[in-house]
Structures are given as structure tokens and as C-alpha cells.
Write a structure and sequence with these properties.
Strand order of the largest sheet: 1-2-3-5-7-10
CATH class of the largest domain: Alpha Beta
CATH topology of the largest domain: 2-enoyl-CoA Hydratase, Chain A, domain 1
Number of helices: 12
Structural class: alpha/beta
Bound molecules: octanoyl-coenzyme A
Helix content: 40-55%
Distance between the termini: 21 Å
CATH superfamily of the largest domain: 2-enoyl-CoA Hydratase, Chain A, domain 1
Order of helices and strands: EEHEEHHHEEHEEHHEHEHHHH
Strand content: 15-25%
Number of domains: 2
Shape: globular
Largest sheet: 6 strands, mixed
Length: about 260
């Protein structure tokens, strides 16, 4: 694979897994526009790379990301920030078709917390903390936090986090269903890789349509969502992977999925 040189992120592949590491350590991976553009470029490259089946998004042990870059935003006005339309870049993360696993250690605050919620599965180190502290700097979450957090943890817990700005621990996040699993801090990336490897064994086409159908819950009514799921279910019966997967089960052998 062609390796791009980035200034704010590092990328690598391991087996069928594409790994993106946020890398602005001097500012706890604050998400400025250049970083977000590089992140989207890397995610889109992995999404289009047939050798990659699952993507892991991670930061350092100290910080996944401490939020959008406050230095970059502090002098904006309503019109200047609107015209820059930074969320157009953020929105592209939503359109990645392969599963994205967030491997989170340390701070996941503000836009950093929102970025984890744009991923599909969240593995947290025991040191992880999640928060929407925007209220402390006179604004509110802007990259989906009010919507996604509320859907995941419910209205009252989301209100508390968004109105007080108080971060929650990995344990609290686990109890609320925000994270899938907590592991010791040396192991958060390894655990994310283990989950990624498991998913990478499945039919890529089934994985893609499953992700698409699950995400439909966020932007459709239950009726629309059910219809959408059904359509994707039917569609998979024209894949070679469905034939192979069911045949392998009946023949009591592992399936060999090709993504066709
Ligand atoms: N933006 C810019 N710089 C940051 C940010 C940030 N979000 N977070 C930390 N830094 C910088 C600090 O300024 C400091 O720089 P320096 O060494 O030059 O002084 C360096 O990172 C290390 O940080 P601290 O010294 O503060 O480290 P501490 O361990 O004392 O504290 C905290 C860590 C608690 C994480 C603290 O840094 C903090 O509170 N950070 C800000 C958290 C925050 O408010 N995040 C929300 C930002 S707003 C947002 O995310 C809105 C999203 C909407 C999307 C917008 C798209 C355009």
C-alpha cells in the first residue's frame, strides 16, 4: 500500500486491519482542521483498500483527543465559522463503510468524545475518561454530541454530562453502555486488534451492509429502519459469501469469505 506522509496522524496496516493513530502529543491530540483532513484522507484510503477489512482509530496512552482545537476556534465569529464549514470534513467520517473501532486511553473530551461516538465500537483503557466539557468554555457540543450521546446513554445522563461538563470514568462509561469493554491500559490497542481480527474474518460485504443497517437507526424511523435492514438482508443472498458461509456451516468447516 502507498504510505502517505501526514503531519498529525500515523497510519499502519497489520494483517487486514488499518490503524490510524492521532498524533499531536503537544496538545493532547486537539483536533484542528489539518488533523481532521488527514484523518478523513487516511480513513477513506483504508475504506477503498481491499486488503483492509476493519479500521482502528486510536490516540496515545495519555489522550485519545482533548477536543477540537480551541486555539484555532477562539477568534471565530458566527459567520466566519459557518463559512469555513468544518463539519463537512467531520461528516465524511460518517460515510466510511468499514467498521471503525475506537481504542481509547486517557482523555476523550469534546470533539474527541464525539469522534469516538462516530466510531462503531469503543474499547477503553481503564484510564479513559469521556466528557463534553464545551459548556465550560461557553459553547456546546457541535460534532453530534447532543444527539449521539443522548441516544446512547439516555436523556438524563447526557444532560448531566453536557450541562455540567464533568467527564465520566471508563467504568461509568461502561455502565452506561457508551463503551464496549474496559481493559488494563497496556492492553487497549491489543484488545481493539482482537475485536478487529474477529470481524475481519467475516464476510466484508455482510459486515458493510450490517454497519449500514445499524447506523440507519440514527436517521430513520423504526419502519424505515426495518425496511432498510430487510433490503440489505435480501441483498446478501446474491453474494458468494452467503452461499459459502451457509455451506461451510453445514459442512462443519470454517468459511472462506472473499467479499463477493
Ligand atoms: N485545544 C487546544 N489545545 C489544547 C486542548 C484543546 N482542546 N486541550 C489541551 N490543549 C493543550 C493545552 O493548552 C496545553 O498546551 P500548552 O502546553 O501549550 O499550555 C497542552 O494541550 C496540555 O494540556 P494541559 O496543560 O491543559 O494538560 P492537563 O493535563 O493539565 O489538562 C485537560 C488536560 C483536562 C484535557 C485540559 O487540557 C483541558 O481541559 N482541555 C480542553 C478540553 C476541552 O474543553 N475540550 C472541548 C473543546 S471544544 C470542542 O471540542 C467542540 C467540538 C465541536 C467540533 C468543532 C469543529 C470545528
Amino acid at each position: 500500500m502507498m504510505t502517505m506522509t501526514y503531519r498529525n496522524i500515523l497510519t499502519e496496516t497489520e494483517d487486514n486491519i488499518g490503524i490510524v493513530k492521532l498524533n499531536r502529543p503537544q496538545v493532547l491530540n486537539a483536533l484542528n482542521h489539518e488533523l481532521m483532513s488527514e484523518l478523513v484522507q487516511a480513513l477513506e484510503d483504508f475504506d477503498g483498500n481491499d486488503n483492509v477489512r476493519v479500521i482502528i482509530l486510536t490516540g496515545s496512552e495519555r489522550a485519545f483527543a482533548a477536543g477540537a482545537d480551541i486555539t484555532e476556534m477562539s477568534d471565530e465569529t458566527t459567520i466566519s465559522i459557518m463559512l469555513k464549514d468544518r463539519f463537512a470534513t467531520w461528516d465524511k467520517v460518517r460515510h466510511i463503510t468499514k467498521p471503525i473501532i475506537a481504542a481509547v486511553s486517557g482523555y476523550a473530551l469534546g470533539g474527541g468524545c464525539e469522534l469516538t461516538m462516530m466510531c462503531d465500537i469503543i474499547i477503553a483503557s481503564e484510564t479513559a475518561q469521556f466528557g463534553q466539557p464545551e459548556i465550560n468554555i461557553g459553547v456546546i457540543p457541535g460534532a453530534g454530541g447532543t444527539q449521539r450521546l443522548t441516544r446512547v446513554i439516555g436523556k438524563h445522563k447526557a444532560m448531566e454530562m453536557i450541562l455540567t461538563g464533568r467527564p465520566i470514568t471508563a467504568q461509568e462509561a461502561y455502565a452506561m453502555g457508551l463503551v464496549n469493554k474496559i481493559v488494563p491500559k497496556e492492553l487497549f490497542l491489543e484488545e481493539a486488534k482482537a475485536v478487529a481480527k474477529d470481524i475481519a474474518k467475516k464476510s466484508p460485504v455482510a459486515v458493510r451492509l450490517a454497519k449500514e443497517a445499524v447506523l440507519k437507526t440514527f436517521d430513520a424511523s423504526i419502519n424505515e429502519g426495518l425496511q432498510f435492514e430487510r433490503k440489505n438482508f435480501y441483498m446478501l443472498f446474491s453474494s458468494e459469501d452467503q452461499k459459502e458461509g451457509m455451506k461451510a456451516f453445514l459442512e462443519k468447516r470454517p468459511a472462506n469469505f472473499t467479499g463477493r
